[in-house]
Amino acid sequence: MRVAMFGAGRIAPLHARTLAGAPDVSSVSLTDVVPERAAEVAARLGLQHVPSRDEALSAADAVVITAATDAHPELVHAALAHGLTTFCEKPLASTLAASVSLAADVAASDVPVQVGFQRRFDPAYVEARRLIASGELGDIHTVSMRSHDPEPASEEFIASSGGMFSDLSIHDLDALRYLTGQEATEVYCVGTATRFPQYAKFDDYANAAALITLDDGTPVTLTWTRHDPLGHDVRAEVFGSRDSVAVGLGPRTPIRSVEPGVPPPAGPAWTMFLDRWDDAYRDELLAFVDLAAGRSGNPCTARDGVEALRLAEALTISARERRSVRLTEVSA
């Protein structure tokens, strides 16, 4: 299988190494809007650099898109035109309307497009989902989730990120649907950029908290921050009538107990998303290879991408208007 990669940003080397080591992949080519960047990354990793998009597509059996979000629709459409199974990093597009339109085109094409939500492949999330689905946790009373980045982003990144909810929170929103098998019916969210003028400049948030109500009435609490000085902290807790479990709680969790006699985590703390999710990123790309080879179904569809972004849009409206938002208000 020949894989064409588009985008030479920070996630590209990780995905390229995984693909190059996959038994079914015979070659990986790299293309970027900045040819010099693609050439440098390709040379460093021993890949082929192809400067032309059309040339890369014509010589490929599958496509992996790690380019900037605003380039996703054009690249997905180009891959669909060539009938190539495609992996696209989240989000599917920069707006909900564009995502809905693109998902409709994907459905009409009958070409598989897998969206990159790597938490679906993290062993702890997989096990928590199994425990919920099997009924081993009993009735689910509440769910609590949090995602804390270690350092505030640069202004350049903030300007093009799409905002906290489309960039950071969207992973939790997809993971919530994945874990529970439910959709949200209503959200209420509060965000702030206090002490973070670089976020306020772009009408974005550095800290936020939300309450989401699921189909069956289960309440879900979520928090996000762009600055956790102890490290990269992503957790999910599910409280049931028979058992309660946590994802992301372990020796590398960047938080300490102040209960007397309780030692701090053994560490070292997770410092960034690339090391926290290394195994999950690998497994999602290997699942994509299986999808492209026709050995398995799609583990994360374009519709999944739309629904996560629809929730992100509801949170954005809620935070800006300081009111609860029902998902029926947000067209998808």
What can you tell me about this protein's structure?
The chain is α/β, with parallel strands linked by helices and 332 residues long. It folds into 2 domains: 2-117 and 282-301, NAD(P)-binding Rossmann-like Domain (Rossmann fold); 120-272 and 308-329, Dihydrodipicolinate Reductase, domain 2 (2-Layer Sandwich), CATH 3.30.360.10. Helices cover 39% and strands 22% of the residues. The chain contains 12 helices and 13 strands. The strands form 2 sheets. A 7-stranded mixed sheet has the order 12-11-7-10-9-8-13. It has a 6-stranded parallel sheet with strand order 3-2-1-4-5-6, with helices on both faces. Helix 5 links the parallel strand 5 and strand 6. Helix 4 runs parallel beside helix 5 (96-109) and helix 5 packs antiparallel against helix 12. The chain is globular.
